[in-house]
Amino acid sequence: VIVVVGLNHETAPLAVRESLAFPKERLAEALLRARQEGGLGEAMILSTCNRVEVYGRTSSPASPSDAIAAFLARFHERPLADVEPHLYKLEGEAAVRHAFRVAASLDSMVLGEPQILGQVKEAYEAAEKAGSLGAVLNALRNRSIGAAKRARTQTAIGRNAVSVSHVAVELARKIFGDMHDRKVLLVGAGKMSHVAARQMVQMGARATVLGGRTFEKAESLAAALGGRAVPFERLRAELAAADIVVSGTGAPGTVIHREDVEAAQSSRRGRPLFLIDIAVPRDVAEDVARVSGVFLYDLDDLRTVAEANLRERRKEAAAAEAILDEEVAEFLDWRRSLEVVPLLVELRRRADEIRRAEIEKARHRLGALTPEQEKAIEATTSAIVNKLLHEPTVQIKQMAGNGPPEHVGFIRKLFGL
Amino acid sequence: MDSRFWLLVTLVLYAVGAFHALLFALLRRSVLTTISLTATLLGFAFHTAALALRWSEAGHFPALGLRDGASFLAWAIVTVFLLVYVTTRVDAAGLFAYPFAFALVFLANLTPATGRPDPVLQSLYLPVHLVLAVFGYGALFAAFTMGVMYLFQEKELRSRSPRRFYYLIPSLERTDTIGGRTVLGGFGFLTLAILTGFLWNHSLFGRYWTGDPKEWAGLAAWVIYVGILFARGRGGWGGRRAAWLSIAGFAVVVFTFAWATLAPTVALAQQ
Question: What ipTM did this prediction achieve?
Answer without folding.
Answer: 0.82
